[in-house]
Amino acid sequence: MFRIQRLVTLLALMACTVGVTAAEHVVQGVVTQWKPLVTFAMPGDTIRFKNMTGHDTQVIDGMLPDGAEPWKSKLGEESFTVTLEKEGAYVFKCNPHITTGMVGVVVIGDAKRPANFDDLVGKLGTVKVGKNMVNRALKKLDKALMERE
Description:
Elements lengths: L1 H16 L6 E7 L2 E3 L2 E4 L4 E5 L7 E2 L20 E4 L4 E6 L9 E6 L8 H6 L8 H18 L1
Parallel strand pairs: 1-4, 3-8
Antiparallel strand pairs: 1-2, 4-6, 5-7, 7-8
C-alpha cells in the first residue's frame, strides 16, 4: 500500500511539472556580432553566451525592464549564463566591440511587443558609447517583432 501511495505521489508531482521546464538559448560571439542578434525566450529560461574569446556581455545601463537585474560577464568568460525572469527586452553589448556593432537583444515573454520597447527607444539618447549600434539593434528588434506576428 505504501509503495502505491509513493508511486501516486511521484506521478502527481511529475504531472505538475510537465511544460514548466525552462529552456536554454545560446548566443554566440562571432567576430564582432552576436548570433542571433535577437533572442526570444520565456521567463525562467537561461541564456548561455559562447565563443567568448575576446568578448564580454553586459546589459547596457537602463536598457532592461524596470526591476530587472542587469548582468555583466568577465572578458573571455566562456559559457557565461544568465537566467531571466522579468518580462521585457534586454539590450546587451560586448564592451570591446560595441562600436563595431556587437549589440544584441533578449526578449523575455510572449507579448507581441515588449512592454518596455518604447522606453528603450526613449532611453537611446542616454547611451554614451555605440548609440548608432544600439539604435540599429532596436530597429532589428522591431523588424523581428513584426515578423513574429
